[in-house]
Amino acid sequence: MEPIIIVLIILVVLVFIALIKTIQVIPQASAAIVERFGRYTRTLNAGLNIVVPFIDTIRNRIDLREQVVPFPPQPVITQDNLVVNIDTVIYYQVTDARAATYEVASYIQAIEQLTVTTLRNIIGGMDLERTLTSREEINAALRGVLDEATGKWGIRVNRVELKAIEPPTSIQDSMEKQMRADRDKRAAILQAEGVRQSEILRAEGEKQSAILRAEGEAKAAALRAEGEAQAIRTVFESIHAGDPDQKLLSYQYLQMLPKIAEGDANKLWIVPSEIGDALKGLSGAFGNFGPMAGGPAPANGKELREQPRID
């Protein structure tokens, strides 16, 4: 009985192993390459698949999702004989599992070497300044070459990025000094422009202030002259309305004589010819005017001669 039991156990184990090898479950976004006696038979897609046990074998399982592969820094010589280290990142996707398995031994290594050689060809035709400022151009050229070369491998390169472009340390120091000098230059220019603009604004303000001050003085003078004219007009109208006689006018003439003699610079003063008529009016008002101090009154209303002032 024991040999029969052992045989049955062996048969059960073999059946179980056969079932496991027969049923193959492929995850989503994956593919599997099936070989029969070492020859490619078919590609298993996602889901439940049946294969012939002990005859069909799974050669390779490939992830069909987009992959990201960073490559280590590669030294590249520019057109002006400067060595720069460039880090690259490749975004690729397997589109044909069969080609990716049989057309190239290791598509990751092949893509890396192709990226290095292509970078050297592209950067070799650029100087350092253009290399640092033309990342988009380099990315586009590199992607075009990689996509064309990897198409037969069942690989599609979706994107190529340059992570870093590192020039030599001495060049970095020189570039930093140049950038610092440029910043200082721009700062000096901006400061000079600010001072210039400030002076212009100050001059404009002073100009506007002077214009407004002159306009204010002109308006004030016009208003003052208009007020004086109005005052004279009012006085003139009041005099005519009051109808003054000769006596009042003569008295006003005498009141104005001290004001005429005011001032230290007046060495002589002129008596108007109308003063004789004024004195005649006062003479008639007070009866007899009498002799004035310092000499007789003018006879017959004659004009007084110019007398020097005695300080």
From TrEMBL:
Keyword Transmembrane helix recorded: yes
Entry's localization field: Membrane
InterPro entries, sorted: Band7/mec-2_domain, Band_7, Band_7/SPFH_dom_sf, Band_7/stomatin-like_CS, Stomatin_HflK_fam
SMART domains: PHB
Phylogenetic classification of the source organism: Bacteria, Bacillati, Actinomycetota, Actinomycetes, Kitasatosporales
PROSITE patterns (UniProt xref): BAND_7 (PS01270)
Pfam families, per database record: Band_7
Full protein name: Paraslipin
Annotated family: Belongs to the band 7/mec-2 family.
Taxonomy, superkingdom: Bacteria
Record-level GO cellular component terms: plasma membrane; side of membrane
Membrane topology: Single-pass membrane protein
Species this chain originates from: Streptomyces sulfonofaciens
Record keywords, A-Z: Membrane, Transmembrane, Transmembrane helix
Residue ranges occupied by any Band domain in the UniProt entry: 21-179
